[in-house]
Amino acid sequence: MRTLGDKVNNFFTLGFLVQNYDHEPIYLTNIADRAKLYGIKCVMFKPEDVQFESLVAKGKTFNPFRKAWESDYFPLPPFIYDRCFYRNGIDFEKTKKLVKQLKKYGHILFLNYGLPDKWSLYCVLKNTNIKPFLPDTYLVRNSEEVAAYVKQNKCCILKPVTGAGGTGIVAVFYYKEQFLLKYIIQNKQKVRIFFQHNNMKQFMNHLLKKNAYLLQPLLPLRNKKNEPFDIRIFIQKNFIGNWVIQGIGVRVGEKNTFVSNLAKGAKVLSFNKWLKKKHLTLQDKIVKDMKQMINTLLPILDEHYSPLFEIGLDIGFDPKKEKLWILDINSKPGRKIVLQTNPSLETQLYDAPLLYAQYLFNLKLRKDGTI
User: Fold this and answer.
1) Residue ranges matching CATH 3.30.720 in the chain
2) Which InterPro entries does the entry link to (predicted)?
């Protein structure tokens, strides 16, 4: 495996594309500090501070001697690590448009082009071999579709087409001709009961005006304590462009809630400890199915969305059917679950984008015929 002790003869600039300079200061600063061992210079800039006419950006350059970021103007870097987290709204659309414009320049390589919205991604994946791992998913157009589904199936879950961290998710139940909705506001679960369809319709239409939603069955992804849980797999590409699993953890949400995101108060358990509590036959089945899922999914993502550097794969496990489901795929995953389950990987996570950027740099040199 490549180590930092290997001789480095190549020098280039890696840029961090951010929406604000305070979002991930520790993570990006530690990467920049490690970069000097690779002969890599690091800069940081916002999409709106790019001067597209001159291909110059106003931003910050990391000073390895002072270990600090300094205001600077610099040419657009040849390699970019996109750390913008998009949300709905005017700023979202403006930032997304600027980043899309940056990606048109052939001399600039993004470590991660990212993934499309959840509906677009589902439309691609449902026509591949990964479909058996996908819950049935529908694009919601109006409240009548939601009402009709829950009247027949008793419950469902609604997820925003764009978004992350569990924000905006709504669980809908139908019981004794009543609609019960559970949703999260400011990290607290709220409950609304509607005795008439018209009242629920008004609430739902207001929700759909703010964002497009997907409808999925509310899968029984709970443990014996009635706590929701899922499995997060953090995967990155290494110094030769191969996918490697950096860490796996189990996220457990609060009792009687319906999400297990860390941002919503979930706790993290070791995957191995969780797995060992299952009987041996089930352990083997979970590991086998997980390997099949990952080995099927990753080539599909590479085929449709390359270049990709990292993903967070969220998996649900149905204890009754002993079945795995793909719940979400995030191209800008957090690292908290890896660090909480294995803190010794911290330095390795700082090195990973540098190693992959160097891999892309060497590929570019070969393609250009300079080495």
Assistant:
1) 138-216
2) YheC/D
Buried b (16+ CB within 10 A) or exposed e, 326-347: bbbbbbbbbbebbbbbeeebee
The candidate with the shortest Cα–Cα distance to 135, out of 213, 218, 211, 208, is: 218
Q: What is the pLDDT of residue 96?
A: 84
- Tokens linked to 249: 């953890």
Q: Which two tokens stand for residue 209?
A: 């005006």
**DSSP letter (8 states) at residue 7:** -
Cα–Cα distance between 157 and 217 in angstroms, integer?
6
- For domain 222-350, give the CATH number: 3.30.470.20
Tokens of 219: 């899968």
Q: Where in the chain is the domain with CATH 3.40.50.20?
A: 12-110
Give the DSSP letter string of 280-314: HHHHHHHHHHHHHHHHHHHHHHHHHH-S--EEEEE
Do 146 and 138 contact (CB within 8 A), yes or no? no
Q: Is the pLDDT of residue 344 over 90?
A: yes
- 10 pLDDT above the threshold of 60: no
**What is the C-alpha separation between 289 and 202, in angstroms, rounded?**
42
Alpha-carbon distance of 247 to 235, in angstroms, equals 7
The predicted structure's pLDDT at residue 263: 61
Local structure of residue 138 (DSSP, 8 states): E
Q: Does 307 sit behind a cis peptide bond, omega within 30 degrees of 0 on the bond before it?
A: yes
Query: 347 near 312, Cβ under 8 Å?
Result: no
Name the CATH architecture for the domain at 138-216.
Answer: 2-Layer Sandwich (3.30)
CATH of 12-110, one of 3.40.50.20, 3.40.50.10490, 3.90.1150.10, 3.30.479.10: 3.40.50.20
d(CA 16, CA 9): 22
Domain with CATH 3.30.470.20 in the chain: 222-350
